[in-house]
Amino acid sequence: MPDMNTKIKVAVDDFIKTISGLALEAVNEAVTSALGGALGNGRRRGRTATRAGGPTAISKRGAARGFGSKRPPEEMETIKGAILTFLQANPGSRIEQIKSGIGYETKELSLPMKKLIAAKAVRAEGQKRATTYYPSGGKRRKRAAA
User: Is 130 inside a domain boundary?
Assistant: First the structure.
């Protein structure tokens, strides 16, 4: 009988190993498809989503790109160009107004705005939420003295 018990134990262990492997494979496939193929083999992959329809929610782009990864230089240039175009038409705008005007989230505008300020393409006046932005060379409109 001990021989039969050993055979049964080996067969059960093999069955458990097979089922565990299949379950792990199913979980990996589900996570990969949910994140747009951003995971796999521990290596980084390029972007899987495109920006054809204009700005979308940051969570969708972030998931497609992988959270914590850099934005491509082309996307940064696009955002910086959109900011500059908006500011030339609307000098003295706050970040909330820029966000509404060009359709990006405030989080997405922070880094490009910092780069524009550092490059002296945009100047900022004020503090925190009261900060207004002007294109460089753009004069601030002065109020007439009463």
Answer: yes
Specify if 82 maps to a domain. yes
Domain coverage including residue 80: 73-135
For the chain, the domain total comes to 1
In a domain, 83, yes or no: yes
Q: What is the pTM of this model?
A: 0.51
Query: Among candidates 55, 13, 11, 59, which has minimal Cα distance to 38?
Result: 59
pLDDT along the chain (146 residues), means of 10: 82 89 87 69 46 43 63 91 94 94 91 94 92 80 48
- Cα radius of gyration rounded to whole Å, the chain: 27
- CA dist., res. 50 & res. 46, Å (int): 11
Instruction: Report helix, strand or coil for 93.
Output: strand
The CATH number given to whatever domain includes residue 88 is 1.10.10.10
Q: Both ends of the chain: CA-CA distance in Å?
A: 107
Cα separation, 105 vs 93, in Å, equals: 15
Of 97, 46, 98, the C-alpha closest to 74 is 46
Q: Residue 94 has what pLDDT?
A: 95
